[in-house]
Specification:
single chain, about 525 residues, alpha+beta, Uridine Diphospho-n-acetylenolpyruvylglucosamine Reductase, domain 2, Uridine Diphospho-n-acetylenolpyruvylglucosamine Reductase, domain 3, Vanillyl-alcohol Oxidase, Chain A, domain 3, 4 domains, eight-stranded antiparallel sheet, five-stranded antiparallel sheet, 19 strands, about 15% strand, globular, binds adenosine-5'-diphosphate
């Protein structure tokens, strides 16, 4: 981060959106107080320079729509408490980010102009790694790459479970209900213990950690009394400053595999087969069925196969599938454990997949020069990487916004979701680029709406298309599990059973925990009473 040029003079109105509560002079006074509290170089107000790094370059709206007024980057819980004191007295909204790389779901920029980003990137301590019991305790700024490299340097036999982009925060992704691709892929499930700073500055240790000198704060999740961790995820009830995360011991064997399927309609049968195998844990990790274009993107660009406008026609897609030796759907899975167990499980899996005509099988060594295969093999054994971002090369200056509904794991639901999204995307001129994952008992469909970020019309169409999808899916009883900043209110609005009782409860909690309304106003559609 660059050192900031200095305090803005009180009579110079900064050319940037200010929080509603502040006059330019108050803004400058608040900035000066923040600088005294945490050091000049860790308070950023220069939107041409440092502040630009906080914008979401993939937003469907113009940059200005999500620009912060300033950013503060504390190094400790004590500095966070000092910032909160100032924020409360000036009523400054603070939008917390950990590594702030959450582009798929809305980038690090706040919800509306006139906010300060609370950037926890500098809190980078890996507080504990316990090899015997298989866990780590980390601060917000620790990325998957950093935790992985740390374990490698120590010769650890513990795996991490990264999200597809390895630059993200272990803690940030867990708070957003993110997922990975090893058997420990449900990140919130693998969380054990949190430290949270509340808006009034109180520091809380959750679960067993609430017992002074606790021996089990990273071993047993539920403590005694209500289990509150979930409340601090996808919410604005507190600032999470530490999490425990369980790590999988390296298994004695690992066998990744890919099965390709030639027809779009095969999705029905694939889902019918995968559902029960996942449920009984013969497939122990996130079972991922990847659509053609997603699978092709590390190896090809759209222009190589089609230069026309609108969605790529089937005959061009078939040609691409043939050239790259991939399917309309591509199932990635892995076997873990001692050899005899893997041998036995594979017999069951192979027989099941062979029942789909045209299924082709690939194993280690079969696709030596295929980056798509290589990054899946890494992800399923917890090696962080960034290959998935090659999807951004699919169109010119690619950007994406992710639509991610959940449904039951049935062939019928998978086809319904696929066709709903494909048809809506095609109507707006976009390709269907998606994958389906089976978590535990639900099917997660991730649709990457890829558009050219330098094309105003494409941005506008992407925005409109996304809005329609939210409604299309709500009408079918499918909800999104996570969303972009620009659509949080809309999606929160679809969770409206019994006159919106759940979100009314969220608002009551918000009022109790953050009455001044300084923490991430609007996160998940939860607005402080003063701003709603
Ligand atoms: P990543 O870089 O892994 O994508 P981010 O740092 O962007 O993750 O965090 C994702 C979202 O999670 C943020 O926009 C914010 O709403 C929330 N968040 C992140 N860190 C915290 C935290 N320490 N406390 C509370 N909420 C957080």
């Amino acid at each position: 981060m660059a050192v900031h040029p200095g305090i803005v003079a009180a009579d110079q109105a900064p050319e940037k959106p200010l929080p509603e509560s502040l006059t330019p002079a108050e803004f400058n006074r608040a900035v000066a107080e923040l600088r005294r509290a945490i050091g000049d170089e860790w308070v950023f107000t220069d939107d041409e320079g440092d502040l630009r790094t906080y914008r979401d370059v993939y937003s469907t709206l113009p940059d200005e729509a999500n620009m912060p007024s300033a950013a503060v980057a504390p190094r400790s819980v004590e500095e966070i408490q000092a910032i909160l004191k100032i924020a409360r007295s000036y009523q400054i909204p603070l939008w917390t980010v950990s590594t702030g790389k959450n582009y798929a779901y809305g980038g690090p920029a706040p919800r509306k102009p006139g906010f300060f980003v609370l950037d926890l990137n500098r809190m980078k301590r890996i507080i504990e790694v316990n090899e015997e019991h298989g866990y780590a305790v980390v601060e917000p700024g620790v990325s998957y790459f950093e935790l992985y490299n740390y374990l490698q340097r120590r010769g650890s036999k513990l795996w991490i479970d990264p999200a597809a982009p390895g630059w993200g925060s272990v803690l940030g992704n867990l708070l957003e209900h993110g997922a990975g691709y090893t058997p420990y892929g449900d990140h919130l499930l693998m969380n054990c213990g949190m430290q949270v700073v509340l808006a009034d500055g109180t520091v809380v240790e959750t679960g067993m950690g609430a017992l002074s000198g606790s021996a089990t704060s990273s071993l047993y999740k539920y403590g005694c009394g209500p289990w509150v961790e979930g409340m601090f995820t996808q919410s604005n009830f507190g600032i999470v400053t530490k999490v425990g995360i369980w790590l999988m011991p390296e298994p004695p064997g690992y066998r990744p595999y890919l099965v390709t399927f030639p027809r779009e309609e095969d999705l029905y049968q694939i889902t019918e087969i995968v559902g029960p195998l996942r449920l009984n844990m013969l497939i122990p990790n996130a079972a991922t069925t990847v659509g053609l274009i997603w699978e092709a993107a590390p190896n090809a660009t759209r222009k190589q196969y089609y230069r026309g406008k609108g969605p790529m026609p089937m005959r061009h897609r078939r040609k691409m599938a043939q050239d790259l030796d991939i399917g309309m759907w591509n199932f990635y899975g892995a076997l873990y454990g001692p050899e005899p167990i893997m041998d036995n499980n594979w017999k069951v899996l192979e027989e099941a997949f062979r029942s789909i005509p045209g299924a082709k099988f690939f194993f280690e060594g079969d696709r030596p020069n295929d980056p798509a295969w290589r990054y899946r093999v890494k992800l399923m054994k917890g090696v962080p990487n960034m290959t998935e971002f090659s999807l951004m090369n699919w169109v010119g200056s690619g950007a994406h916004i992710d639509f991610s509904p959940r449904s039951p794991v049935t062939g019928e639901d998978s086809m319904k979701q696929f066709t709903l999204i494909r048809d809506r995307a095609n109507e707006y001129g976009f390709d269907y680029i998606g994958e389906f994952l089976v978590g535990w008992r639900e099917l997660l469909n991730i649709f990457q709406l890829i558009f050219d970020r330098l094309d105003e019309d494409e941005r506008r169409r992407a925005h409109e298309c996304f809005g329609h999808l939210v409604n299309d899916f709500a009408e079918q009883g499918y909800g999104e599990y996570r969303t972009h900043l620009n659509f949080m209110d809309e999606i929160a609005g679809t969770y409206n059973w019994n006159d919106g009782a759940l979100w009314k409860l969220h608002h009551r909690l918000k009022q109790a925990l953050d009455p001044v309304g300084i923490l991430s106003p609007g996160k998940s559609g939860i607005w402080p009473a003063s701003k709603s």
